[in-house]
Amino acid sequence: MRTASNSTYRLAALLAATAALPVQAVELKPGNWEVTMESMNPMMPAPRKIVQNECMTESDIDWPAKMASGMDGSSGCEMLDSSNGQGEATWKIRCQGAGGPPMEGEGYMRSRGKTAEGKMTMRMNFQGQEMVISNTWNGRYTGPCN
């Protein structure tokens, strides 16, 4: 049984909020993807940048929709607002935090089948201070999986 790597989960987490949107809004081509992600968190001394190659199968690309089916509130997260069109999706989300502080955020994703980019920003209060975590990423299709 194949398990998805960290980059698949990162990509899926960013796409999960778009699961309620029509598929054509966030269409991705199955195959090998080079994904660059940069995460900024005030608790880290510097932004963390990761570049990975990942074989994205049809099942991996469908995984965000399966994951986000819990966005009805049973997962602790709910979709507050979403819109889409012309290969772009935006959303606002609220999570009640299982064992952690409540968070709210927004994000966007643009895709053209063989390229994609996005950003998600989440805000929470942590020990009396507002914390903002920002993840930006871009990906490009590099060919069929080996």
Task: Describe the secondary-structure layout.
Blueprint (H helix, E strand, L loop, with lengths): L5 H11 L14 E10 L7 E9 L1 H11 L8 E9 L2 E8 L7 E9 L3 E12 L2 E15 L3
Antiparallel strand pairs: 1-2, 1-7, 3-4, 4-5, 5-6, 6-7
Write up what this structure looks like.
It is a single chain. The protein has 146 residues and is of the alpha+beta class. It has one domain. The chain is built from 2 helices and 7 strands; from the N terminus they run H-E-E-H-E-E-E-E-E. Strands 2-1-7-6-5-4-3 form a 7-stranded antiparallel β-sheet. Strand 5 and strand 6 form a beta hairpin. Helix 1 crosses helix 2. The longest helix has 11 residues. The protein is globular, with a radius of gyration of 15 Å.
Helix content: 10-25%
> Given the helix and strand composition, which structural class is it?
alpha+beta
Shape: globular
Q: Cα distance, first to last residue?
A: 17 Å
Number of strands: 7
Query: What number is the mean pLDDT?
Result: 76
Primary descriptors:
146 residues, alpha+beta, 7-stranded antiparallel sheet, 2 helices, 7 strands
Condensed summary:
With 146 residues, this protein is α+β, with helices and mostly antiparallel strands. The two termini are 17 Å apart.
